[in-house]
Structure prediction request, 190 residues.
Amino acid sequence: MALSARRRDGRVAEPRYHPAAQALHWVTALAVLGMLAVGLWMTGLPLGFTKLYAYTWHKWVGLVVLALTVGRLMWRWRHPPPPLPSAVVHWQAVLAPIAHWALLALLLAMPLSGWLMSSAAGVSVFWFGYIPLPDLVPRDPALFEALQTTHYVLSRLLIAVLVLHVAAVVHHDLLRRDGVFRRMWPFGGT
Ligand code: HEM
Prediction:
């Protein structure tokens, strides 16, 4: 949902994302960066307690990202994002929603492929040690390998789209100063 505000200089500021959408965005961003870092680190660990612990938390937090993304999609369905500032050039205005939908699709596909992979490996997930989650597929070593590759490829795609996303934010905020970043930033001026 868009929130407009009058700035101290009397001009009406560009509409911003609703605080709930901002909170969902930044919590997801932190979780996903942590997930990528832990994911890249843990696969190289030798077998042992640290690896087991890292894999377990990776799965638990990954499923939190899935829940947050479903929550964001439901929020977005009832509260469409505010229109882009008029200063944004046409091709960027066309590209922005494509990149955002690609990110949202990857934030669903990453945890789902992980959950499927875990099920195919025959390892059920007990979410945070308390909630038994259903296996999505029966144990199947060949499917496990295919899903492992899928999860790997999706993680590289996610990194590529995130790099694009951050580059676009830096471009808008530092070079063009067109107010795009402020729409999602919960702190500071209007
Ligand atoms: C946003 C969510 C997620 C992200 C960003 C993510 C990211 C990653 C990354 C970067 C890797 C390392 C890939 C590699 O370089 O080989 C990885 C591995 C792995 N992930 Fe995820 N992951 C997510 C969710 C999940 C979930 C929900 C599960 C399971 C329930 C899961 C299970 C695994 C497993 C088992 C591996 C190790 C695969 C192997 O040993 O080769 N992931 N993940």
Q: What stands out?
A: The pocket of protoporphyrin IX containing FE is lined by residues 32, 35-36, 39-40, 43, 55, 58-59, 62-63, 65, 107, 110-111, 114-115, 117-118, 125, 148, 151-152, 155, 158 (CB under 6 Å). The chain has four helices and four strands.
